[in-house]
């Protein structure tokens, strides 16, 4: 499987490009900024993007939704709980002195347990509210990796002081949906370095508080 991380935007979002080499179908997760950079990578890899997936609706993760959707024809997916955040993304960015494109409406909504197939690969959607009400993680069990958005980071967890956030709900999501995964599952967060479920279970101070 093709798996590429591109760090984009002023807030250093990890945008992920996934591809099935046999079918050349692919997925872009959290295209937050630097649209040309993401599109150049997609072209270089020679894949057709089937899905654009937002792990949540904050502006730094959705800023290139429109460009990618228009230029690839891919479906745009986000959890319904974050639809309002998606609609307000451009205005939210302005409050931080930044600018992002207005996002088009999602093609359909992510749901807990949904499977997104691209070629021979499959992504399972894990609804993990807490950072936002519609926050989701994306599990590729066969590849032993999980994309956690702003739910879980290396040695940390997502902030919960923004509208719709709840620390209690976030910790419940992490413990119910992520901690049962195998120790050797690689964690790819929305910002910062990767980790593993085993390491976070042992060493993350928020999980062990």
TrEMBL record:
Sequence segments annotated as region (Disordered): 183-209
Keywords of this entry: Hydrolase, Metal-binding, Zinc
Gene3D superfamilies: Ribonuclease Z/Hydroxyacylglutathione hydrolase-like (3.60.15.10)
Domain Metallo-beta-lactamase: 12-191
Listed Basic and acidic residues bias regions: 198-209
Cofactor(s), names only, from the UniProt record: Zn(2+)
Pfam short name (any one): Lactamase_B
Keyword Hydrolase on entry: yes
Name of the protein this chain belongs to: Beta-lactamase
